[in-house]
Write a structure and sequence with these properties.
By secondary structure, the protein is an alpha/beta fold. It is 45% helix and 15% strand. One of its GO terms (cellular component) is cell envelope.
């Protein structure tokens, strides 16, 4: 009898342990992953607003709790957000700023928070300093970035092709870049490549510091200095549209070929109405792709191999296809998208990330999302 009671007690203890383990396992598997996305700009900026909206849709689709904080377009304010990050977050997704990358990485490492970075806006010296993901900083899981050289070249080639089609004997380009960041310089290098291919001249590269007001002031002086210019390449849609508006006020009778980068709703509308000729974009998907990678890591996958898929490529919108893209800015469509199709954890037959905008459009057109 005594032996029987001992066995009964043991079985009860084992049962309690199994129940405790099961409840703990259930809690771990059902608790939503928490991610902080730092939008480097302020609310109301078209590109980053869309980037954030799509990221929210991806997080919702994957049952991820996503918080968003805004850096206000200031690198010091962005870095302060990193400094004050709560350790409650499993992952942080953010864009490192010039001169602050290493410090941000160190602080996140000290807090024990995994992170994925967006874009490549830091200079070559900092690239060497921080190295590659999962090397010097093991918690730096991956980076998601698009090919800015390809964006600059794609836009330049599209504008120069249209210039040739319009019968321009010699395309003369006025280039309006952003700032002196790696991102801006790579876009300008892409333009130089396309200009060489089309035997076009770049009369001058102006630095707008992403400020439309500065761009308007610069275009007034530029057309006086270079009266034979006929092509305007802009590193952002906002700059391209500002210049287009200023040229309209100046009432020039020239047939300007103008284009920008970002796929903003205003730019797509301007292309449709033939106020500008082209816009290059698709990189607003970057935060959503990063969320998918964070999800896969939370499911036990090593996402370090994702670097083989980088950099990602931009796409072109012209008057030929602009009507198909206007719905991008309707937030309801993004919550209809199946982002799970891009997860390696949920699609074990896939061996590498296929972050392709064309694939997203094709696979979601049939169900009425796009």
């Amino acid at each position: 009898m005594k032996f029987s009671r001992i066995c009964k007690d043991i079985y009860q203890q084992i049962g309690r342990l199994i129940l405790t383990f099961s409840l703990t396992l259930f809690a771990c598997t059902t608790q939503a992953t928490q991610i902080l996305l730092i939008n480097p700009d302020q609310p109301g900026r078209p590109f980053w607003d869309l980037t954030t909206e799509v990221a929210k849709a991806a997080a919702n689709n994957l049952n991820i709790k996503l918080d968003v904080k805004y850096g206000g377009g200031d690198r010091f304010a962005n870095h302060k957000l990193i400094s004050n990050i709560s350790t409650k977050y499993d992952y942080v997704i953010f864009m490192p700023h010039r001169g602050k990358a290493a410090a941000s990485f160190e602080q996140l490492t000290d807090k024990g928070v995994h992170f994925i970075t967006l874009e490549r806006a830091i200079d070559k010296t900092e690239f060497k300093q921080v190295g590659k993901p999962q090397e010097k900083y093991p918690l730096w899981l991956a980076e998601v970035y698009y090919d800015d050289w390809q964006a600059g070249k794609l836009l330049g080639s599209a504008l120069l092709k249209q210039s040739k089609n319009h019968g321009e004997l010699q395309p003369n380009i006025l280039a309006f870049n952003g700032d002196h960041s790696s991102l801006s310089e790579q876009r300008a290098d892409g333009l130089i490549t396309s200009a060489n291919q089309y035997q076009a001249q770049i009369k001058q590269v102006f630095y707008t510091f992403w400020n439309p007001t500065i761009a308007k002031q610069q275009i007034r002086k530029a057309i006086q200095r270079y009266p034979n210019s006929n092509v305007i390449w802009a590193a952002s849609d906002q700059i391209a549209i500002a210049i287009s508006q200023e040229l309209k006020l100046l009432a020039t009778d020239k047939n300007w070929i103008i284009g920008g980068i970002d796929w903003s709703i205003d730019a797509i509308e301007a292309v449709k109405k033939q106020r500008i000729s082209a816009t290059v974009g698709g990189h607003f998907m970057q935060a959503a792709w990063a969320i998918i990678m964070a999800y896969d890591h939370s499911m036990g996958l090593d996402v370090g191999h994702s670097q083989a898929a980088m950099p990602l490529s931009h796409q072109l919108i012209t008057q030929d296809n602009a009507k198909h893209f206007h719905s991008l800015w309707q937030s309801k469509i993004w919550h209809c998208i199946n982002f799970k199709q891009f997860s390696l954890a949920l699609n074990r037959n896939q061996t590498y990330y296929q972050f392709d905008f064309e694939r997203l459009v094709t696979s979601n057109t049939a169900n009425g999302c796009l």
